Write the C-alpha coordinates for this entry.
Amino acid sequence: MELLDFYCQCENVLFMGNKILIDIQFKRNHLLQNGFDLTMSLYCGIACRRKSFWCFRLLSTYVTKTRYLFELKEDDDACKKAQQTGAFYLFHSLAPLLQKSGHQYQAPRHSLLELERLLAKFGQDTQRIEDSVLIGCSEQHEARFALDLVLNSSSSINASLQKSEMETELKGSFTKLRKALFQLNTKDASLLTTAQALLRWHDAHQFCSRSGQPTKKNMAGSKRVCPSNKIIYYPQMAPVVITLVSDGTRCLLARQSSFPKGMYSALAGFCDIGESMEEAVRREVAEEVGLEVETLQYSASQHWPFPNSSLMIACHATVKPGQTEIQVNLKELEAAGWFSHDEVATALRKNNPYTQQQNGTFWLPPKLAIAHQLIKEWVEKPSCSPLPA
Ligand SMILES: NC(=O)C1=CN([C@@H]2O[C@H](COP(=O)(O)OP(=O)(O)OC[C@H]3O[C@@H](n4cnc5c(N)ncnc54)[C@H](O)[C@@H]3O)[C@@H](O)[C@H]2O)C=CC1
Protein backbone atom coordinates (compact mmCIF):
# COMPACT_ATOMS: atom_id res chain seq x y z
CA MET A 1 0.00 0.00 0.00
CA GLU A 2 1.22 3.48 -0.86
CA LEU A 3 2.21 5.16 2.41
CA LEU A 4 0.83 8.55 1.48
CA ASP A 5 -2.46 7.23 0.24
CA PHE A 6 -3.97 5.45 3.17
CA TYR A 7 -7.41 6.18 4.51
CA CYS A 8 -8.74 6.13 8.05
CA GLN A 9 -12.20 5.53 9.31
CA CYS A 10 -13.78 8.35 11.31
CA GLU A 11 -16.58 7.84 13.78
CA ASN A 12 -17.51 11.52 14.17
CA VAL A 13 -16.65 14.37 11.92
CA LEU A 14 -17.48 17.99 12.75
CA PHE A 15 -16.53 20.97 10.65
CA MET A 16 -15.98 24.29 12.48
CA GLY A 17 -15.10 27.01 10.01
CA ASN A 18 -12.06 25.72 8.27
CA LYS A 19 -11.09 23.46 11.20
CA ILE A 20 -12.10 19.84 11.47
CA LEU A 21 -12.88 18.05 14.73
CA ILE A 22 -12.64 14.34 14.39
CA ASP A 23 -12.76 11.18 16.29
CA ILE A 24 -10.70 8.77 14.36
CA GLN A 25 -10.27 5.11 14.56
CA PHE A 26 -7.14 4.25 12.67
CA LYS A 27 -7.21 1.03 10.81
CA ARG A 28 -3.50 0.98 10.50
CA ASN A 29 -2.07 2.58 13.59
CA HIS A 30 1.41 1.38 12.85
CA LEU A 31 1.66 3.79 9.94
CA LEU A 32 1.62 6.64 12.41
CA GLN A 33 4.92 5.45 13.74
CA ASN A 34 6.36 5.66 10.25
CA GLY A 35 7.08 9.33 10.09
CA PHE A 36 3.58 10.80 9.87
CA ASP A 37 2.93 14.10 11.54
CA LEU A 38 -0.67 13.64 12.61
CA THR A 39 -1.45 17.28 13.50
CA MET A 40 -0.04 18.59 10.27
CA SER A 41 -1.71 15.87 8.30
CA LEU A 42 -5.16 16.45 9.70
CA TYR A 43 -5.18 20.13 8.92
CA CYS A 44 -4.25 19.20 5.40
CA GLY A 45 -6.61 16.27 5.14
CA ILE A 46 -9.11 16.16 2.34
CA ALA A 47 -12.42 14.88 3.63
CA CYS A 48 -14.75 12.92 1.46
CA ARG A 49 -17.73 10.70 2.13
CA ARG A 50 -17.28 7.09 1.16
CA LYS A 51 -20.30 4.86 1.52
CA SER A 52 -21.15 4.82 5.23
CA PHE A 53 -18.06 6.43 6.71
CA TRP A 54 -15.86 9.46 6.23
CA CYS A 55 -12.46 9.03 4.71
CA PHE A 56 -9.49 11.31 5.12
CA ARG A 57 -6.66 11.25 2.75
CA LEU A 58 -3.78 12.19 5.02
CA LEU A 59 -1.05 14.24 3.48
CA SER A 60 2.40 13.73 4.88
CA THR A 61 4.65 16.60 5.88
CA TYR A 62 6.59 15.94 2.69
CA VAL A 63 3.50 16.29 0.49
CA THR A 64 2.31 19.52 2.16
CA LYS A 65 5.81 20.95 1.80
CA THR A 66 5.95 20.00 -1.87
CA ARG A 67 2.54 21.54 -2.53
CA TYR A 68 3.60 24.72 -0.74
CA LEU A 69 6.74 25.01 -2.88
CA PHE A 70 4.65 24.41 -6.00
CA GLU A 71 2.36 27.30 -4.97
CA LEU A 72 5.35 29.60 -4.43
CA LYS A 73 6.69 28.78 -7.90
CA GLU A 74 3.34 29.49 -9.52
CA ASP A 75 2.23 32.55 -7.56
CA ASP A 76 4.50 35.61 -7.44
CA ASP A 77 2.50 37.27 -4.64
CA ALA A 78 2.67 34.16 -2.44
CA CYS A 79 6.39 33.94 -3.10
CA LYS A 80 6.97 37.58 -2.20
CA LYS A 81 5.02 37.03 1.01
CA ALA A 82 7.14 33.97 1.77
CA GLN A 83 10.26 36.13 1.57
CA GLN A 84 9.08 38.05 4.66
CA THR A 85 9.35 34.96 6.85
CA GLY A 86 11.95 33.20 4.74
CA ALA A 87 15.72 32.96 4.95
CA PHE A 88 18.38 33.85 2.40
CA TYR A 89 21.68 32.15 1.53
CA LEU A 90 24.22 34.54 0.06
CA PHE A 91 26.62 34.03 -2.85
CA HIS A 92 29.33 36.12 -4.47
CA SER A 93 30.04 35.28 -8.14
CA LEU A 94 28.46 31.85 -7.53
CA ALA A 95 30.60 31.14 -4.44
CA PRO A 96 28.45 30.49 -1.33
CA LEU A 97 29.05 32.28 1.96
CA LEU A 98 30.36 29.93 4.66
CA GLN A 99 31.03 30.58 8.31
CA LYS A 100 33.32 28.56 10.52
CA SER A 101 32.22 27.63 14.01
CA GLY A 102 34.80 25.50 15.82
CA HIS A 103 35.90 22.79 13.42
CA GLN A 104 32.64 22.91 11.50
CA TYR A 105 31.52 25.01 8.55
CA GLN A 106 27.98 26.14 7.99
CA ALA A 107 26.10 28.18 5.41
CA PRO A 108 24.50 31.07 7.31
CA ARG A 109 20.96 32.21 6.56
CA HIS A 110 19.76 35.80 6.72
CA SER A 111 16.24 37.11 7.30
CA LEU A 112 14.70 39.60 4.87
CA LEU A 113 15.30 42.43 7.35
CA GLU A 114 18.98 41.53 7.74
CA LEU A 115 19.35 41.25 3.99
CA GLU A 116 17.83 44.69 3.43
CA ARG A 117 20.27 46.14 5.95
CA LEU A 118 23.22 44.36 4.29
CA LEU A 119 22.24 45.50 0.80
CA ALA A 120 22.05 49.09 2.00
CA LYS A 121 25.48 48.71 3.59
CA PHE A 122 26.87 47.24 0.34
CA GLY A 123 25.48 50.18 -1.66
CA GLN A 124 22.82 48.09 -3.38
CA ASP A 125 19.13 48.68 -3.94
CA THR A 126 16.74 46.45 -1.95
CA GLN A 127 15.09 45.81 -5.33
CA ARG A 128 17.95 43.30 -5.79
CA ILE A 129 16.01 40.89 -3.54
CA GLU A 130 13.89 40.20 -6.63
CA ASP A 131 16.95 38.50 -8.16
CA SER A 132 16.83 35.84 -5.47
CA VAL A 133 15.73 32.31 -6.28
CA LEU A 134 13.61 29.90 -4.27
CA ILE A 135 15.56 26.76 -3.37
CA GLY A 136 13.38 24.96 -0.83
CA CYS A 137 11.58 25.29 2.46
CA SER A 138 11.76 23.90 5.99
CA GLU A 139 9.25 21.45 7.44
CA GLN A 140 7.59 24.51 9.04
CA HIS A 141 7.20 26.10 5.58
CA GLU A 142 9.91 28.69 6.07
CA ALA A 143 11.01 29.33 2.51
CA ARG A 144 14.72 29.28 1.60
CA PHE A 145 16.11 31.64 -1.03
CA ALA A 146 19.51 32.33 -2.52
CA LEU A 147 20.87 35.63 -3.77
CA ASP A 148 24.13 36.37 -5.53
CA LEU A 149 25.38 39.74 -4.34
CA VAL A 150 27.14 40.56 -7.59
CA LEU A 151 25.62 38.51 -10.45
CA ASN A 152 22.98 40.28 -12.55
CA SER A 153 23.37 43.47 -10.59
CA SER A 154 23.15 46.85 -12.26
CA SER A 155 26.11 49.21 -12.63
CA SER A 156 25.42 50.65 -9.17
CA ILE A 157 27.32 47.61 -7.87
CA ASN A 158 30.55 49.24 -8.95
CA ALA A 159 30.11 51.65 -6.11
CA SER A 160 29.54 48.84 -3.65
CA LEU A 161 32.01 47.28 -1.27
CA GLN A 162 34.67 44.82 -2.39
CA LYS A 163 34.32 41.12 -1.73
CA SER A 164 36.69 41.13 1.23
CA GLU A 165 34.78 43.99 2.85
CA MET A 166 31.55 42.08 2.36
CA GLU A 167 33.15 39.03 3.98
CA THR A 168 34.20 41.09 6.98
CA GLU A 169 30.68 42.43 7.40
CA LEU A 170 29.17 38.94 6.94
CA LYS A 171 31.74 37.28 9.26
CA GLY A 172 32.38 34.53 6.74
CA SER A 173 34.03 33.77 3.45
CA PHE A 174 32.74 33.16 -0.06
CA THR A 175 34.06 29.69 -0.85
CA LYS A 176 34.19 27.91 -4.21
CA LEU A 177 31.37 25.35 -4.33
CA ARG A 178 33.70 22.39 -5.03
CA LYS A 179 35.51 23.14 -1.79
CA ALA A 180 32.36 24.11 0.12
CA LEU A 181 30.73 20.73 -0.59
CA PHE A 182 33.43 18.94 1.40
CA GLN A 183 32.91 21.20 4.40
CA LEU A 184 29.15 21.12 4.81
CA ASN A 185 26.53 18.64 5.96
CA THR A 186 24.61 16.88 3.16
CA LYS A 187 21.46 18.97 3.55
CA ASP A 188 23.25 22.32 3.20
CA ALA A 189 25.47 20.94 0.43
CA SER A 190 22.44 19.89 -1.56
CA LEU A 191 20.66 23.25 -1.06
CA LEU A 192 23.74 25.22 -2.11
CA THR A 193 24.24 23.03 -5.16
CA THR A 194 20.68 23.71 -6.29
CA ALA A 195 21.10 27.38 -5.50
CA GLN A 196 24.29 27.73 -7.52
CA ALA A 197 22.79 25.87 -10.49
CA LEU A 198 19.73 28.15 -10.51
CA LEU A 199 21.72 31.36 -10.03
CA ARG A 200 24.07 30.35 -12.85
CA TRP A 201 21.18 29.51 -15.15
CA HIS A 202 19.55 32.92 -14.57
CA ASP A 203 22.83 34.68 -15.15
CA ALA A 204 23.22 32.90 -18.50
CA HIS A 205 19.62 33.39 -19.68
CA GLN A 206 19.14 37.12 -19.37
CA PHE A 207 18.01 37.52 -22.99
CA CYS A 208 15.46 35.85 -25.25
CA SER A 209 17.25 33.87 -27.98
CA ARG A 210 14.41 34.69 -30.44
CA SER A 211 13.80 38.42 -29.85
CA GLY A 212 17.06 39.45 -28.21
CA GLN A 213 15.01 41.28 -25.56
CA PRO A 214 15.77 41.00 -21.82
CA THR A 215 13.79 38.15 -20.23
CA LYS A 216 12.01 38.57 -16.90
CA LYS A 217 12.36 36.14 -14.05
CA ASN A 218 9.31 35.08 -12.02
CA MET A 219 9.53 35.69 -8.28
CA ALA A 220 10.64 32.13 -7.40
CA GLY A 221 13.11 31.94 -10.26
CA SER A 222 11.54 28.76 -11.66
CA LYS A 223 11.29 30.35 -15.14
CA ARG A 224 12.01 33.43 -17.27
CA VAL A 225 9.62 34.96 -19.78
CA CYS A 226 10.29 37.17 -22.79
CA PRO A 227 7.85 40.09 -22.42
CA SER A 228 7.73 40.69 -26.19
CA ASN A 229 6.83 37.18 -27.46
CA LYS A 230 5.88 35.40 -24.20
CA ILE A 231 8.37 32.57 -24.78
CA ILE A 232 9.00 30.84 -21.43
CA TYR A 233 12.48 29.56 -20.54
CA TYR A 234 12.86 26.92 -17.83
CA PRO A 235 16.07 26.00 -15.98
CA GLN A 236 17.60 22.90 -17.54
CA MET A 237 19.97 20.07 -16.71
CA ALA A 238 21.88 18.05 -19.29
CA PRO A 239 21.38 14.26 -18.93
CA VAL A 240 24.64 12.35 -18.55
CA VAL A 241 25.04 8.57 -18.31
CA ILE A 242 27.73 7.21 -16.03
CA THR A 243 28.42 3.50 -16.33
CA LEU A 244 30.47 1.03 -14.36
CA VAL A 245 31.30 -1.77 -16.78
CA SER A 246 32.13 -5.20 -15.39
CA ASP A 247 33.16 -8.49 -17.00
CA GLY A 248 31.80 -10.46 -14.08
CA THR A 249 34.95 -10.37 -11.93
CA ARG A 250 36.68 -7.07 -12.76
CA CYS A 251 35.43 -3.53 -13.33
CA LEU A 252 36.53 -1.02 -15.93
CA LEU A 253 37.81 2.37 -14.78
CA ALA A 254 39.18 5.18 -16.89
CA ARG A 255 40.74 8.62 -16.61
CA GLN A 256 40.80 11.79 -18.67
CA SER A 257 43.89 13.95 -18.85
CA SER A 258 41.96 16.69 -17.03
CA PHE A 259 41.41 14.45 -13.94
CA PRO A 260 43.58 15.00 -10.86
CA LYS A 261 46.70 12.82 -10.90
CA GLY A 262 45.99 9.13 -10.15
CA MET A 263 42.18 9.39 -10.15
CA TYR A 264 40.17 6.84 -12.12
CA SER A 265 36.39 6.83 -12.49
CA ALA A 266 33.48 5.14 -14.27
CA LEU A 267 32.76 6.03 -17.92
CA ALA A 268 30.63 9.17 -18.32
CA GLY A 269 29.15 11.00 -21.27
CA PHE A 270 26.34 13.37 -22.26
CA CYS A 271 23.20 11.85 -23.82
CA ASP A 272 22.73 12.82 -27.45
CA ILE A 273 19.41 14.35 -28.40
CA GLY A 274 16.82 11.68 -29.21
CA GLU A 275 18.67 8.93 -27.31
CA SER A 276 17.28 6.75 -24.53
CA MET A 277 19.44 6.18 -21.48
CA GLU A 278 20.14 2.62 -22.66
CA GLU A 279 21.24 3.83 -26.10
CA ALA A 280 23.49 6.47 -24.55
CA VAL A 281 25.20 3.86 -22.34
CA ARG A 282 25.82 1.49 -25.26
CA ARG A 283 27.16 4.31 -27.45
CA GLU A 284 29.40 5.84 -24.76
CA VAL A 285 30.95 2.49 -23.85
CA ALA A 286 31.54 1.65 -27.53
CA GLU A 287 32.89 5.16 -28.27
CA GLU A 288 35.23 5.40 -25.29
CA VAL A 289 36.62 1.88 -24.84
CA GLY A 290 35.46 -0.06 -27.94
CA LEU A 291 33.35 -2.59 -26.01
CA GLU A 292 29.81 -3.77 -26.57
CA VAL A 293 27.47 -3.71 -23.55
CA GLU A 294 25.59 -6.92 -22.99
CA THR A 295 23.46 -6.22 -19.92
CA LEU A 296 22.52 -3.02 -18.16
CA GLN A 297 21.01 -2.05 -14.81
CA TYR A 298 19.98 1.37 -13.55
CA SER A 299 21.42 2.22 -10.15
CA ALA A 300 20.67 5.81 -9.09
CA SER A 301 20.83 9.44 -10.21
CA GLN A 302 22.33 12.70 -8.97
CA HIS A 303 22.27 16.37 -9.82
CA TRP A 304 25.87 17.42 -10.55
CA PRO A 305 26.58 21.16 -10.69
CA PHE A 306 30.07 21.10 -12.30
CA PRO A 307 30.76 22.78 -14.66
CA ASN A 308 27.06 23.19 -15.54
CA SER A 309 23.99 21.37 -14.27
CA SER A 310 23.95 17.71 -15.30
CA LEU A 311 21.56 14.97 -14.31
CA MET A 312 23.88 12.01 -13.74
CA ILE A 313 22.15 8.69 -14.48
CA ALA A 314 24.25 5.89 -13.01
CA CYS A 315 24.18 2.31 -14.33
CA HIS A 316 25.97 -1.01 -13.99
CA ALA A 317 26.73 -2.78 -17.25
CA THR A 318 28.41 -6.01 -18.21
CA VAL A 319 30.27 -7.16 -21.30
CA LYS A 320 30.70 -10.76 -22.41
CA PRO A 321 33.67 -12.40 -20.58
CA GLY A 322 35.26 -13.31 -23.92
CA GLN A 323 34.99 -9.79 -25.32
CA THR A 324 36.91 -7.63 -22.91
CA GLU A 325 39.77 -6.22 -24.98
CA ILE A 326 39.81 -2.46 -24.45
CA GLN A 327 40.51 -0.05 -27.30
CA VAL A 328 40.87 3.35 -25.67
CA ASN A 329 39.59 6.33 -27.65
CA LEU A 330 42.49 8.70 -26.98
CA LYS A 331 40.43 11.70 -28.10
CA GLU A 332 38.23 11.15 -25.05
CA LEU A 333 40.35 9.30 -22.49
CA GLU A 334 43.94 9.24 -21.35
CA ALA A 335 43.79 5.63 -20.08
CA ALA A 336 41.36 2.84 -19.20
CA GLY A 337 41.83 -0.58 -17.65
CA TRP A 338 40.29 -3.53 -15.84
CA PHE A 339 40.65 -3.50 -12.05
CA SER A 340 40.20 -6.51 -9.76
CA HIS A 341 37.73 -6.55 -6.88
CA ASP A 342 40.62 -6.47 -4.39
CA GLU A 343 42.32 -3.49 -6.03
CA VAL A 344 39.11 -1.46 -6.06
CA ALA A 345 38.08 -2.48 -2.52
CA THR A 346 41.52 -1.44 -1.23
CA ALA A 347 41.39 1.89 -3.06
CA LEU A 348 37.93 2.57 -1.62
CA ARG A 349 39.10 1.78 1.90
CA LYS A 350 41.99 4.22 1.87
CA ASN A 351 40.49 6.78 -0.44
CA ASN A 352 42.23 9.95 0.60
CA PRO A 353 42.48 12.11 -2.52
CA TYR A 354 45.09 14.38 -0.95
CA THR A 355 47.67 11.75 0.07
CA GLN A 356 47.04 9.51 -2.93
CA GLN A 357 47.47 12.43 -5.30
CA GLN A 358 50.75 13.25 -3.56
CA ASN A 359 52.24 9.77 -3.92
CA GLY A 360 50.69 9.18 -7.34
CA THR A 361 48.75 6.02 -6.40
CA PHE A 362 45.45 4.96 -7.92
CA TRP A 363 42.42 6.56 -6.23
CA LEU A 364 38.69 6.95 -6.79
CA PRO A 365 36.25 9.90 -6.90
CA PRO A 366 35.17 11.32 -3.51
CA LYS A 367 32.09 10.08 -1.65
CA LEU A 368 29.78 12.84 -2.78
CA ALA A 369 30.19 11.90 -6.48
CA ILE A 370 27.78 9.30 -7.80
CA ALA A 371 30.77 7.56 -9.44
CA HIS A 372 31.96 6.69 -5.93
CA GLN A 373 28.55 5.25 -5.00
CA LEU A 374 28.48 3.17 -8.17
CA ILE A 375 31.95 1.74 -7.51
CA LYS A 376 31.10 1.06 -3.86
CA GLU A 377 27.92 -0.72 -4.91
CA TRP A 378 29.93 -2.96 -7.24
CA VAL A 379 32.49 -3.74 -4.54
CA GLU A 380 29.73 -4.69 -2.11
CA LYS A 381 27.77 -6.71 -4.68
CA PRO A 382 29.97 -7.51 -7.68
CA SER A 383 27.61 -10.18 -8.93
CA CYS A 384 24.56 -7.92 -9.44
CA SER A 385 22.72 -9.37 -12.42
CA PRO A 386 21.73 -6.60 -14.82
CA LEU A 387 19.06 -6.82 -17.52
CA PRO A 388 19.87 -7.37 -21.20
CA ALA A 389 20.68 -3.98 -22.81
N1 LIG B 1 29.21 13.09 -10.27
C1 LIG B 1 30.04 12.20 -10.81
O1 LIG B 1 30.32 11.17 -10.22
C2 LIG B 1 30.66 12.47 -12.16
C3 LIG B 1 30.24 13.53 -12.91
N2 LIG B 1 30.72 13.73 -14.18
C4 LIG B 1 30.18 14.84 -14.97
O2 LIG B 1 29.56 14.30 -16.12
C5 LIG B 1 29.66 15.22 -17.21
C6 LIG B 1 30.12 14.47 -18.44
O3 LIG B 1 31.32 13.85 -18.18
P1 LIG B 1 32.43 13.82 -19.33
O4 LIG B 1 31.89 13.25 -20.59
O5 LIG B 1 33.60 13.18 -18.72
O6 LIG B 1 32.59 15.39 -19.46
P2 LIG B 1 33.42 16.32 -20.39
O7 LIG B 1 33.30 17.66 -19.75
O8 LIG B 1 34.74 15.73 -20.67
O9 LIG B 1 32.57 16.39 -21.75
C7 LIG B 1 32.84 15.62 -22.88
C8 LIG B 1 32.39 16.35 -24.12
O10 LIG B 1 30.97 16.45 -24.15
C9 LIG B 1 30.61 17.63 -24.88
N3 LIG B 1 29.69 18.40 -24.05
C10 LIG B 1 29.98 19.29 -23.08
N4 LIG B 1 28.84 19.78 -22.53
C11 LIG B 1 27.82 19.17 -23.17
C12 LIG B 1 26.40 19.24 -23.04
N5 LIG B 1 25.82 20.03 -22.13
N6 LIG B 1 25.67 18.46 -23.84
C13 LIG B 1 26.25 17.66 -24.75
N7 LIG B 1 27.59 17.54 -24.93
C14 LIG B 1 28.36 18.29 -24.13
C15 LIG B 1 31.87 18.39 -25.20
O11 LIG B 1 32.21 18.10 -26.53
C16 LIG B 1 32.86 17.79 -24.25
O12 LIG B 1 34.15 17.85 -24.78
C17 LIG B 1 30.62 16.34 -16.74
O13 LIG B 1 29.80 17.44 -16.40
C18 LIG B 1 31.28 15.78 -15.49
O14 LIG B 1 31.56 16.78 -14.55
C19 LIG B 1 31.63 12.87 -14.74
C20 LIG B 1 32.09 11.80 -14.01
C21 LIG B 1 31.68 11.55 -12.64
